[in-house]
Amino acid sequence: MGACGGKPFKLINNNRLPYGTDKNIKGTDDDPVYQTQQVGIEKYKIDAPKGEYELTLHFSELLGGTVKGLDYNLDSEDRIEPSGKRIFDVFVNNKMMLENFNITGQYGAASSVSKVVRLSVKDNNGIEIVFKPVEGDPILNALQLKRIIPNNQHEQTAIQ
Length: 160
Fold this sequence. Notes:
Blueprint: E1 2-4, E2 7-8, H1 31-34, E3 38-39, E4 43-46, E5 51-59, E6 65-67, E7 79-81, E8 87-92, E9 95-101, H2 103-107, E10 113-121, E11 127-135, E12 139-140, E13 142-148
Antiparallel strand pairs: 1-4, 2-3, 3-12, 4-11, 5-10, 5-13, 6-7, 8-9, 8-11
């Protein structure tokens, strides 16, 4: 289980943070979820048993635009970063989930983006998420996987 390919995002010309960013991410109160990412990711494999799932992929373009230093970062200054233009496709278990996904073009830099898909795992083959670059390097900030239990079934709980 885990990521294949890529490397952690690192700020350019920053000696303070070894990875990630301290940008304020628009559209979320959970900035830390979006302040780190895997850049150049090729695939992510999850060993999930047979069943129904809801998979949420979280994205935010951490490059591009003017960055205003946050008040609590005493050493931060406003700066302009290089463009983070990247376009990529995402496949989940060989089915296209996102085509020509352009985070900056569709949502702007430093914006939280969540994409959700429901899927079935059969034969205990797990879940494979493949990222194919169209332009630039694909990214992934976070993912969530929830098992879905149909309404007519209930989990058994042992009572002693």
